[in-house]
Amino acid sequence: MKYKENLSEETIPVSKSQRRRDALELKSLASELIKLSQAKLGRVPLDEGVRAAIMEARQIKSNVARKRQMQYVAKLLRRDDPEPIFLALEGFENEAKQLTGRQHRSEAWRDFLLESGDPAISLLMKQRMDIDTQAIRQLVRNARRESEKSKPPASARTLFRMLREMDEKEPLPPMGMIP
Predict the structure, then answer these.
(1) What is the full per-residue pLDDT of the chain (179 aa) written as tens digits?
(2) Distance from C-alpha of 70 to C-alpha of 81, rounded to nearest angstrom
(3) What CATH code is assigned to 14-78?
(4) Ramachandran quadrant class, 9 (left: phi over 0; alpha: psi -120 to 50; beta: rest)
(5) 116, exposed or middle or buried, with CB in 10 Å at 0-12, 13-18, 19+?
(6) CB–CB of 106/167 below 8 Å?
(7) Architecture label for domain 92-171
(8) CA 109 to CA 53: how far, in whole Å?
């Protein structure tokens, strides 16, 4: 029977329900680890035995056998503290959120520039000193022409890429902050 220490140094048994919740949490962690890409899995701090069991689980085609292997991975995860693994997965999630935010900011600025033209470019110049004003003006004019003539939006895409690169160096101001 496992025991848990509380602040008063008394030992109390961990409930069966809590042990089950912990086991289910580790099982879902094992499932997430098996689904991770090879590059991301390499960045997760794992014991070599756990890493080998995950690689083996990826190769199994039978659902029943894969489930059994996933439970084995969860069992191996119980031996060590899973907190660094949870932190690594949370870091991946934060990276994805930042990338999504960057994409949305760049799209919003591109749309704002295409709709408003020179006043929007002036506003961006006030916010950021590192912009190539002439290139942005040219891209906005070309994108408008392409839109009027129903051509593919090559200039709008180039403008988006330029804004995204600017956002990578230093985040663009959110559109809610624009007067």
Answers:
(1) 444 444 555 677 888 898 898 888 889 889 889 988 888 888 889 889 889 999 999 999 999 999 999 999 999 988 888 888 888 888 888 888 888 888 888 888 889 888 888 888 888 888 887 788 888 889 999 999 998 888 888 989 999 999 888 888 888 877 765 65
(2) 18
(3) 1.10.60
(4) left
(5) middle
(6) yes
(7) Orthogonal Bundle (1.10)
(8) 46
